[in-house]
Write a structure and sequence with these properties.
Elements lengths: L4 E7 L18 E9 L7 H8 L7 E5 L8 E6 L10 E8 L3 E5 H8 L5 H15 L16 E3 L3 E3 L18 H8 L13 E4 L6
Parallel strand pairs: 2-3, 2-4, 4-6
Antiparallel strand pairs: 1-5, 2-9, 5-6, 7-8
Length: 207
């Protein structure tokens, strides 16, 4: 079986101005727990990784860190190799493989986020890679003319600003509406949550 590997990249000329985003919010009727292991590293705080993972809470995802990688659905590793510019002029910040693996490129994250790596860079990177592990094994193009644009059956083309854009959006600390649509188009068979137990449901009523 092919194991997709997707990169989150950044341009060298990335500006420092942080955009203002209208985050998507919703209260789901049920939740599943995504267990997360973070390789011990001075610049990868587990609490920050858990909070970034929780960007997906509107989709019913609860995030919990565990001390043992064998107990985790998602495992975040730090790669300390050289930060290398790619042929298209971008730098890889992280990548994900089917089955729960996430690798963060520490040197490239430092290039854009300083030392220690700023939340404005680390948070959207972790949240983006977790999105892949939830089954969003595609990117949301910023340009609707992009041939990779997917179409939601009710909402039309899924393109524009999103956490799941292929380029990192500095300071985006949560999911946007287009990420919700991308989640609805996810491949559930390639989501780590297919192995996660239900954590209970909320039963509601209205007048």
């Amino acid at each position: 079986m092919t194991r997709p590997l997707l990169l989150l990249a950044a341009f060298a000329a990335c500006g420092d101005d942080l955009a203002s985003y209208d985050l998507y919010d919703a209260e789901p009727s049920e939740f599943r727990t995504l267990t997360l292991w973070v390789q011990p590293h001075d610049e990868l705080p587990p609490d920050l990784a858990r909070a970034a993972c929780a960007s997906w809470r509107p989709e019913g995802v609860l995030c919990e860190t565990v001390p043992d990688p064998s107990e985790a659905l998602v495992r975040i590793h730090a790669y300390e190799g050289e930060c290398v510019e790619r042929e298209d002029g971008t730098y890889a910040l992280g990548h994900a493989t089917v089955g729960g693996g996430i690798v963060l490129e520490i040197a490239c994250l430092r290039k854009f986020g300083g030392t220690p790596i700023s939340e404005e860079v680390l948070w959207p990177t972790v949240a983006h890679e977790v999105g892949h592990q939830l089954g969003i094994w595609h990117h949301v193009p910023t340009d609707c003319d992009d041939p990779e644009t997917r179409t939601h059956p009710e909402r039309g083309p899924v393109c524009g600003p999103a956490l799941m854009n292929p380029m990192m959006r500095r300071g985006l600390m949560g999911m946007l509406y287009l990420d919700h649509l991308a989640y609805e188009l996810r491949d559930q068979d390639l989501s780590v949550l297919r192995l996660a137990p239900h954590e209970g449901c909320t039963f509601t009523a209205s007048d």
